[in-house]
């Protein structure tokens, strides 16, 4: 999977102004109007940027249940446990991780994966065969990078298990343009188009994991990531 990543080191300059954006959680949108469930999951260097990215950065909270998370863990833990977390490759885009790929799932997970595919990708479009599973240690993090345009298409969709985290997007050619995206445990995020091609993405380490002024403890986190093929 290393081939998929091109690490682009960036120094992130904290912005002067962060503008909250309201997003309906998937629960709120499916149950009609429920303003109390609205959450600001995306903040950025300007309101205009957050607005411009719009649906290219999507977070659906509560996309899976704790039971479904349990099904993924039961399927994934035995294989992951046999691997060691990797820490010491200075040139890796990811620090403190182990990973695997999966083409077949048991019924419960397959049902979730079908849901992911149907909300994130256009029907019938070719997907990257195996799903990527990334297990970040509590001290692990993902450095700024853009997924390889040679191997991956316009859309990246990821489930977050076990921990909340913050994904930071920074415009590749204008590093003062950034957004932070809160990825709650059990949520699905989708990056599309510009957000996928023109912004680096990273998952912040625990020490830096502060969203809109509020600490978001980063525990061990497993992500299950679907990608499509380049058009
Ligand atoms: C990656 C990546 C994000 C995540 O593996 O390329 O950016 O949610 N992962 O784990
Ligand atoms: Mn990536």
UniProtKB/TrEMBL annotation:
Cofactor(s) listed in the protein's UniProt record: Fe(2+)
Gene3D superfamilies: Alpha-ketoglutarate-dependent dioxygenase AlkB-like (2.60.120.590)
InterPro entries reported in the protein's UniProt record: AlkB-like (IPR027450), AlkB-like_sf (IPR037151), ALKBH7-like (IPR032870)
SUPFAM superfamilies the record matches: Clavaminate synthase-like
One Gene Ontology CC term in the entry: mitochondrial matrix
BP GO annotations: DNA damage response; fatty acid metabolic process
Start and end residues of each Alpha-ketoglutarate-dependent dioxygenase AlkB-like domain: 137-225
Recorded superkingdom: Eukaryota
Protein name according to UniProt: Alpha-ketoglutarate-dependent dioxygenase AlkB-like domain-containing protein
Species of origin: Zoarces viviparus
Organism lineage: Eukaryota, Metazoa, Chordata, Craniata, Vertebrata
């Amino acid at each position: 999977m290393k081939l998929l990543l091109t690490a682009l080191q960036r120094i992130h300059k904290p912005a002067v102004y962060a503008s909250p954006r309201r997003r309906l959680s998937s629960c709120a949108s499916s149950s009609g109007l429920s303003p109390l469930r609205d959450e600001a999951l995306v903040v950025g260097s300007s309101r205009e940027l957050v607005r411009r990215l719009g649906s290219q950065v999507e977070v659906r909270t509560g996309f899976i249940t704790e039971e479904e998370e349990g099904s993924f863990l039961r399927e994934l833990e035995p294989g992951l446990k046999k691997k060691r977390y990797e820490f010491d490759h200075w040139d890796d885009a990811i620090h403190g991780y182990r990973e695997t790929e999966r083409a077949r799932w048991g019924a419960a997970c397959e049902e979730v994966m079908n849901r992911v595919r149907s909300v994130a990708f256009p029907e019938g479009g070719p997907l990257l065969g195996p799903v990527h599973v990334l297990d970040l240690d509590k001290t692990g993090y993902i450095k700024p990078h853009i997924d390889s345009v040679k191997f991956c298409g316009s859309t990246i969709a990821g489930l977050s298990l076990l921990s909340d985290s913050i994904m930071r997007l920074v415009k590749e050619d204008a590093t003062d343009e950034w957004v932070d995206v809160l990825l709650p445990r059990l949520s699905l995020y989708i990056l599309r188009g510009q957000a996928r091609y023109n912004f680096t993405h990273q998952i912040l380490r625990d020490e830096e994991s502060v969203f809109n002024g509020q600490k978001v403890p980063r525990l061990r986190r497993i992500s299950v990531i679907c990608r499509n093929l380049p058009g």
